[in-house]
Design brief:
This protein has 226 residues and is an alpha+beta fold. It is built from ten helices and twelve strands. Residues 144-214 form the HTH crp-type domain.
Length: 226
């Protein structure tokens, strides 16, 4: 744990006031890409923090259709909604890439909440932020065109993008966009084809490359009125 804290300022900020009697109970877990870390409707007694990689948080409908609520990265946590009352998970958590997490059992998590005011404030603030984003997304899904939502999401992904010769690489693929916006892949393909023809993006197998940030933001603004 000491090495993890030394190499991860984001994680250190979360755990900075965690009492030693709680800190020593953290466990490290690693999952390969595609592994289901937690399954919808199952009960788990752990709180998780991601320290490396990306995870897809999604819900599956009775007809098998997936609805992706978010992609989590380093510093994001899950299990907080269900852990207090041992409720079944609302969503499934899948490793989008190789994933490394730390986790702590419910008993020690509750002890941590009770003894660490810094963490109590942090988790309250981030829960409010997550609820705000989900509410905003629900409104956008209802009020705005698919083109706006795709452009808006790609702009949001830019801050985690990696600069390459092809453009800024963002970890997004067609399947994920289809799940996130609950539309067919044909609809997603139509939007991506349009953006590609405009010289704004290139589409890879598992990533999208942003070639022009300025043009992408222009399309985002223009599609608000569609």
């Amino acid at each position: 744990m000491q090495k993890i804290l030394e190499n991860n300022p984001v994680i250190l900020q979360i755990l900075r006031d965690c009492p030693y009697e709680v800190l020593k109970h953290w466990e490290i877990r690693e999952y390969s890409k595609g592994h289901i870390v937690c399954s919808q409707e199952d009960v788990y007694e752990y709180f998780y923090i991601i320290i490396k990689g990306y995870a897809n948080i999604y819900r599956t409908a009775e007809n098998g259709k997936k609805y992706s609520q978010s992609v989590y990265k380093k510093g994001n946590y899950f299990g907080e909604l269900e852990i207090f009352d041992k409720r079944p998970y609302i969503c499934s958590v899948e490793a989008l890439t190789d994933l490394k997490v730390i986790r702590i059992h419910r008993n020690h998590f509750l002890e941590w909440i009770e003894k660490d005011r810094n963490f109590l404030i942090y988790i309250t603030k981030t829960l409010c932020d997550n609820f705000y984003k989900l509410s905003k997304k629900a409104g956008e899904d209802t009020l705005y065109s698919l083109k706006y939502r795709v452009c808006n999401y790609l702009v949001y992904c830019l801050h985690d993008g990696i600069e390459t010769e092809r453009g800024i690489k963002v970890q997004v693929n067609k399947d994920h966009l289809s799940e996130m916006f609950v539309v067919t892949q044909r609809s997603i393909n139509r939007i991506l084809k349009y953006l590609k023809e405009k010289g704004i993006i290139e589409v890879g197998n598992k990533s999208i490359y942003i070639k022009s940030i300025e043009k992408l933001k222009e399309e985002e603004r223009a599609s608000l009125s569609e």
